[in-house]
Amino acid sequence: MTKYNNSTSHRGHNARTPGAAGNGLREHEVAQTIHEKFIKVTKAVDCTDDAGTTANANLVNIVAKMNRVGISFHVSHHLNAFNGQANGFEVWYFAGNETARKLAQAICDEVCKATGWVNRGAKATTSLYVIRASVGTAVLIEWGFIDSKRDMDILSGKMDDAVNAALKAMGYSASSGGSNNGGGSTVTTPTPQPTPSPTPTPSPTQPTQLAVDGSLGPLTARRWQEVTKMQIRDGRISHQWRQAQNQNIHAAVFDKTLIGSNLIRDTQRRLGIKQDGLCGPQTITAMQRAKGTTADGFISAPQSQLVMAIQQDLNAGRSPF
Ligand SMILES: [Zn+2]
After folding, report:
1. Model-level pTM greater than 0.70?
2. Residue 32's domain is classified under what CATH number?
3. What residues contact 229, with CB distance under 8 A and at least 6 apart?
């Protein structure tokens, strides 16, 4: 079973800007209970926001907290509402992020099996703010419809079963009671985001062997910069334009400048393609073709075959392209 290290968790909304209501329940209060059970086991950082006084401010504050942690898998807890009749369980993920889709579907399947909820399945989005604006991979869980009596009867009777099933889908075994390595055979290690400053200085005499983990984090980026003799070796892939295809490049710094990165420009020169410094789908596809990995234009998480091939080259001291 894949282990998805849960780095942050939060409940949506707050008392100043509450979400949905129904059956005498309020969304942020129910989601809080679930969120607390979640972080008790996963030890994820709590990114809940109680300060925002508008829905927008609440979302911005939550995502700012998520991006300060900036690693691996984020979970957002919500409840749906519609017309009192609609019911069931669903999980949202960023469209095109295959790892997120698999995780979202696994959570749906496990939770619905454990509770008898109607399985509405994994749902793709490019518009939900906590998913679109956060670094790493975020899933947003709708724990049933708060205005459905059927759903809330299930949730009140089986909340622990539901939470444990979701944790199981993420690779945490319920019985592990908070162990960070709950029985999964594949451990997905979160890759830290580059910190703004100061940049740790690599030892020039002892090039470290990279873990071939398929995750393009700061260590891999810095080694890549060293091997290709870039002037700046800061472990960052600067000024990238965020897209679904490159959002899993943990070493990337996203902004709207379109300036691009010198490392990517150098790579594009080596590949004989347009040198704009932006690691978008065309550049990713060209790198994949050059390395003979699946040419889908996406850097997948937690493990990209392309990045693994790059890491192998870097460990051998050669430029990947
Ligand atoms: Zn909500």
Report:
1. no
2. 3.40.630.40
3. none
